[in-house]
Amino acid sequence: MSKKIHALITGASAGLGDAYARQLASRCDSMTVVARRGERLEALAGALEGQCKVEILEADLATVEGQARVVEAIRQGPAIDLLVNNAGYSTIGPYATSDLDDELGMLRLHNEATMVLTRAALPAMIEQGSGAVINVASVAGLVSTPNVAVYGATKAFLVSFTRALRQELKEQGVRVQCLCPGYTRSEIHSRETMANFDVNIVPEKLWMEADDVVAQSLAAISDDADQWLLVSGDHNRKVVAREMDALRADLHYPS
């Protein structure tokens, strides 16, 4: 990303989304930040004042109405050079006793919204022969984890979706990346849907800072380092490697 660009970042009010906005500000002519909490976006825009033009878009991407608002902004605004599909949340607990509304809302936010916004942004990218899409998934999308069954499944969808997009778009100048972070310090763990999660049970060495994860992501999707699947952190890469070995051992080929 050597030229000044226009970026659209979802889930920009905290965590990885906030970090993407702050790190991209100096590289952007303009930026659209999307989240449910407008007051957080106002504060972010104030912090970025003088670095780039920031458009605030308050929308709940787990709803059809929120998705439509962002699609309309994409169609009416400047062509997007970088789309960051980051908005998300998690639930925890056995699926059999989970709140189905929370689980379905997570599916709509992680998967449906990503599909809808990516579909809206891609035609202009293809026409100009450049652009990039970052889909924020999780190590949970590569490693089966009890008590986060739907969260992991939605993230696995993003891995498969991004891989297929890369194959479709690699000859058209459009880059894609699926970012798979592990434990990252953010507000996702303090949501009501994560009330049963004790952050203290996770060893300190496993936590990563949002700024570090985002820096790795942006470096990997730069013009000279096209890497479609990025697992942040050495420990997480080892965990994924062990999971791939276990999956191969589980494969059954009928005779």
Automatic annotation (TrEMBL):
SUPFAM superfamilies: NAD(P)-binding Rossmann-fold domains. One of its GO terms (cellular component) is membrane. One of its GO terms (molecular function) is oxidoreductase activity. It holds the Pfam family adh_short. Keywords: Oxidoreductase. InterPro entries: NAD(P)-bd_dom_sf, Sc_DH/Rdtase_CS, SDR_fam. It comes from the Bacteria. Belongs to the short-chain dehydrogenases/reductases (SDR) family. This is Short-chain dehydrogenase. It comes from Congregibacter litoralis KT71.
